Predict the structure.
Amino acid sequence: MAAMLPGLNPPYHTRVRRSVGKMFDRDSLVDIKKSVERITEELLDELDVQLKDGEADLSAIVSEELPVMTIGEWLGLPAADYPMLRSLTHDQVFAQELLPSASQLALSDAATGILRGYFTAVIQERRKAPGGDPISTWIRTWDELERDRDKADEAVYRLVLFVVLAALETTANLLSTAVWLITSHPRQMGWLRAHPEDISAAIEEVLRYDSPTHVVSRVASEDTVLAGVPICKDQMVHCMVGVANHDPAQHVDPHLFDIRRRASHLSFSSGIHYCLGASLARLEVNTLLTAVLRRFPGLRPSRTPEWAPRVAFRRLLTLPVVQAEHRDGVGRAA
Ligand code: HEM
C-alpha cells in the first residue's frame, strides 16, 4: 500500500497524480452521470420488487452494487467479474485497518495476490487492444513517462488497483449511511423531499457525521511537534478524521445529525492527497438520495443496521428497510 498514491511524497506523488489526468472533472462526469442514473433506477426497481414482500436489504441490493457497476463500466471491466472484485476488495482493505489481526492480514494478502493477477492480465489485454477507456489512456501516458515497459505496467497496475480499492467500500458505505441517516430522521427526510436543493448540503452532513473512513495515516519524515505532541522521525501518526469531524471546538452539538448545519469536514482528507474520486462519490450518493426521496417517500429502516467491527473503514453490513404507509398516498404499506 505504501507504493500507492496516498503513500507517496512529492515529487513522485505529483508525477503519479498528474498521470491520472482529469479523472472526474465536470465534462467527464456528464457521461458518467447518465450511467449512474440508469444503474440507480435499475437497482431501485429491484428494491421495489423486494419491498413488495416486506423487508429488503438496501445495502446488498443497491449500495454494494452501484459503486462496482459504475467503476466497472468506466474502466471497461466485464460485469461477470463485479462480484469477485467486490468480495476481494472487502478482504483487501484489512491492510489499511487500524489494528488488523493476523488472520485479517492473511486474507488481505491473499486478496491482493488475486487482484494483482487479475489487473496484470487486464493491462496486457488493453496493450493488445487499446481503446478510449481510462486503463488504455494510463498505459499511453506511462509509456511516455517510463522507458521501461515493466515499470510502466507496474505504475498502471498500482493506479488501477488503488482506484478500485478507493472507490468500492467507501462509496458503498456512504450510500448506505446516507439512506440510514435520512430515513431514520423522518422530519429531515420530509424537508429534503420538499427542498431537493438541500440534498447536497445533507450529503456533506452525512460525510461529517459518519465518515466512510475514520483514519488517515502518515509517517513522519523528520522529528517534529504536532499539536504539542513530539513525533520522532519514522513514527506513524494516525489522524482520526472521524473524531475530528465531531470536534466540539469546530462544530456546535457535534453528535447531532442536522442537515442544515453547512459544516466542513475532513472525510475526503485535505491537501495534496485530497480524494480524487470525491466528485464521483458525491454524484452517486446524490443520485441515489434524489431517487429514493422521489420513489420511496415512506422508506424506513425496519431494524438497526449491522456494522462490521472495524475502525478505519466503516462498513454497514446490512440495511434492512421497509416501505411504510406515506401520508400523501405515494408510499405503500409494508
Ligand atoms: C465516499 C467515498 C470516498 C471517501 C470517503 C474517500 C476518502 C478518501 C480519503 C480520506 C483519501 C485520502 C487518503 C490519505 O490522505 O491518506 C482519498 C484519496 C484518494 N481517493 Fe478517495 N474516497 C472516496 C471515494 C473515492 C472514489 C470513488 C475514487 C475513485 C474512483 C477515489 C479515489 C481516490 C484516490 C485516487 C486517492 C488518492 C489521492 C492521493 O493520494 O493523491 N476515492 N480518498
Q: What stands out?
A: The longest strand covers residues 215-219.
